[in-house]
Each structure stands twice: as structure tokens, then as C-alpha cells.
Design a protein that fits this description.
Blueprint: H1 63-68, E1 73-77, H2 87-92, H3 105-109, E2 119-124, E3 130-133, H4 134-137, E4 144-151, E5 156-166, H5 167-174, E6 182-187, E7 209-213, H6 214-218, E8 223-228, E9 231-232, E10 242-244, E11 257-263, H7 270-274, E12 298-301, E13 311-313, H8 321-324
Parallel strand pairs: 1-4, 2-11, 5-12
Antiparallel strand pairs: 2-3, 4-5, 5-8, 6-7, 6-11, 8-9, 8-10, 12-13
This protein binds ligand MTE.
Length: 337
């Protein structure tokens, strides 16, 4: 995976999130995942749309999304004492190789992605396979806001307020058979709208593929996201449907998903196929296992600049150990990186 140092122009300290947006609440996990009472939220948090975050660009939300917003569980999970990354950084410093390899390329090029109509195929080891229009696919699910750390394998990180629903709810709907052991996700392949897929110099064998063990996918933290910062996902962030698995390196969180398959064998993932010695299937955030070419002990939290690099220690499982460490008790995390 490419690693690039930020240009001084990428981030400005003046973009640092105002005090009022600092999160104040412990993650409400386990039984308390049901959410927190609206009356206990600060005033800015009672709004139910993008107006709750500063400088959010308005989008063109599809009607199924705006219809669901009023029932969203806001701040169902949060991080404590860490600023939410400004919208501008989260949407202009991206990895989405289908639109180019530069951090600014997705924001520049992803306007060509047509997200309506969109359909999702569910297949493999499930009792209820099918191809669904996205608005039908989304019908059963209540949306939740999940404010998570995102730690890229390239050693930068952000804090992003996603909107989505747990993958476990999807699995309940589609009923995996007893042979299903893994879940495989596939991004759209459309060279017409995705310039990166037209490049003859690319290393990637499209489409972009990722996967999880079934018990990882069932963990309450693993979600499929359709929005962020109170609005629908911008194209460069993986509209209209992406995976978010906060305890794993960002490359697991596959964007613009068109196919979800329940499978019996561990799927071959994109980055494993390119460099298996550098990018493993598990890709759990782990400060004690370095990437062969750089340390994973620290990360640069965006916004970061030349004179204020904003470097912090990386946490085991990206700070989600209490919730996910039990998934890996019998696994050697050095071998299964
Ligand atoms: N999904 C697809 N289809 N293509 C990609 O290039 N990049 C991954 C992941 N999902 C990628 C992808 C990587 S390396 C990261 S760090 C995250 O998306 C970045 O998500 P963000 O741009 O929303 O921050």
C-alpha cells in the first residue's frame, strides 16, 4: 500500500474541531448499545441531520435515507475525549483506488459514480439469497450513529461519525446456512465511472474484495454504513454502502458494496493478493506488530500538519479491546496479522 507524507497544504490547525464537538461520553457497548436518551445529549446533538456537525457539505440524499433519519439512534456508540475529524479532512484525504492513488483523487474523481439506482446481491451459503434494490435492502434496518476511530495501515487516523446498522441484523434477515464460515464483500466494478479500474499500470485485480470471519461480522461493532456526519455517504467515502470495522485497519472497510456472499472458505482479499507478507486477512490494529516497512506503534491523527503533527500512541484493537479481544483468544496475532 502506498504511504505518502502529508503536504503542508493538506491540513490546517485552524480546522481543529471546536470544543463543543468534543465527545464526552464513554462508549455504550454491550447491553447499553441500545443508545442514550436524547434528553441527556448536549443541545447540538439533538438535531437529527448534518446541521449537528460543522461545515458539512450538503448532499443529495435519496428519499429512503431522509425517510429513515428521524428514527436514527444518535450517538449509539461514541469515543470519549477525542475530537471528531473535520468533515473536510474526512472527505478530502481518502483511499479509494478505483478513483486514483492520490489522497485527493477520490474527492476529485468520484463524482462520476452513479449511486442511484444501486442494487446489492446476497448469495452463497444463505437461506434467503437475492438481488435487492438498495431502498428495499435497507427497509428492515433502523439507522444508528456510530462514532468510531478509523486507523489506516499507513499510520494515520481519524474519528468519524458514521451512520449505519449492524451486520448482525443483516445476517438475521438472510439466514446463513451451517456451512457459512466467512462473509465476503465486493465493490462495484465499472471502469466507465471508475478511472482507477481503467489504468493499465494498476496492481489491483478488480473488483476490490474484503472479508470477515462470521463471528467477527456478528460483533456489535461491525456495521454497514450508509451515511456520515448526519448525511448520506459522499461518493469518495464509499457511497452508497460500505463496511466499517473499527478495530481493523481501514483497508478492511470496503467501499461501494454491490455483493455480499456467505462462504465456507476464507476469501482471498485484495491486499492479501497484492502483498500477503504485508497485509493479512485479519488486519487487526496492533501496535506490537509492525508493518515490514514502518512501525505501527504510533499514528498521525488528522488534522495534522508539518508543525503540529498530532502523533499519538496506537491502541491495541484501535481501543476496542474490551469488545473484540475475546474473538482472538486462540489466535497467534503475530502470524495472523
Ligand atoms: N474500498 C475500495 N473499494 N477501494 C479502496 O481503495 N481503500 C481502503 C478502504 N476501502 C479502499 C476501500 C482503505 S486503504 C482505507 S484506509 C479506507 O477505505 C479509507 O476510507 P476513507 O477514505 O473513507 O477514510
Amino acid at each position: 500500500m502506498l504511504i505518502k507524507l502529508p503536504k503542508a497544504s493538506d491540513c490546517h490547525e485552524s480546522d481543529v474541531t471546536p470544543e463543543s464537538f468534543y465527545l464526552f461520553r464513554r462508549s455504550l457497548l454491550g447491553g447499553a448499545l441500545a443508545g442514550i436518551a436524547a434528553s441527556s445529549l448536549p443541545r447540538w446533538a439533538s438535531a437529527n441531520d448534518a446541521s449537528r456537525y460543522a461545515d458539512v457539505e450538503a448532499g443529495k440524499a435519496p428519499s429512503w435515507f431522509t425517510g429513515k433519519l428521524p428514527d436514527t439512534k444518535w450517538q449509539a456508540v461514541t469515543v470519549t475525549g477525542e475530537a471528531i475529524t473535520p468533515f473536510k479532512d474526512a472527505t478530502h484525504y481518502n483511499n479509494f483506488y478505483e478513483f486514483g492513488t492520490g489522497k485527493g483523487d477520490p474527492a476529485t474523481n468520484a463524482g462520476s459514480l452513479q449511486t442511484e439506482p444501486w442494487s446489492v446481491v446476497i448469495d452463497g451459503e444463505v437461506a434467503k439469497p437475492g438481488r435487492y434494490a438498495l431502498e428495499d435492502f435497507m427497509k428492515p434496518y433502523q439507522l444508528e450513529e456510530r462514532i468510531y476511530r478509523l486507523r489506516c495501515v499507513e499510520a494515520w487516523s481519524m474519528v468519524i461519525p458514521w451512520i449505519g446498522f449492524p451486520i448482525s441484523s443483516l445476517l438475521k434477515q438472510v439466514e446463513p446456512t451451517s456451512k457459512a464460515k466467512y462473509i465476503r464483500f465486493e465493490t462495484l466494478q465499472d471502469p466507465k465511472s471508475m478511472p482507477g479500474q481503467r489504468s493499465s499500470f494498476g496492481l489491483i485485480d478488480w473488483p476490490y474484495v474484503e472479508g470477515l470471519r462470521l463471528d467477527e461480522a456478528m460483533n456489535p461493532l461491525a456495521i454497514l454504513a450508509v451515511g456520515m456526519y448526519g448525511r448520506e455517504l459522499p461518493n469518495q467515502n464509499g457511497a452508497p454502502l460500505r463496511l466499517v470495522v473499527p478495530w481493523k485497519y481501514g483497508f478492511k472497510s470496503v467501499k461501494s458494496i454491490v455483493r455480499i456472499s456467505l462462504v465456507s472458505e476464507q476469501p482471498k482479499t485484495t491486499w492479501q493478493s497484492i502483498a500477503a507478507d504485508e497485509y493479512g486477512f485479519y488486519a487487526n490494529v496492533n501496535p506490537t506488530v509492525d508493518h515490514p516497512r514502518w512501525t505501527q506503534a504510533r499514528e498521525r491523527r488528522l488534522p495534522s500538519g508539518l508543525f503540529s503533527p498530532n502523533v499519538r500512541e496506537t491502541q491495541m484493537f484501535n481501543g476496542y479491546s474490551d469488545e473484540v479481544a475475546s474473538l482472538y483468544t486462540n489466535l497467534d496475532l503475530r502470524k495472523n496479522y
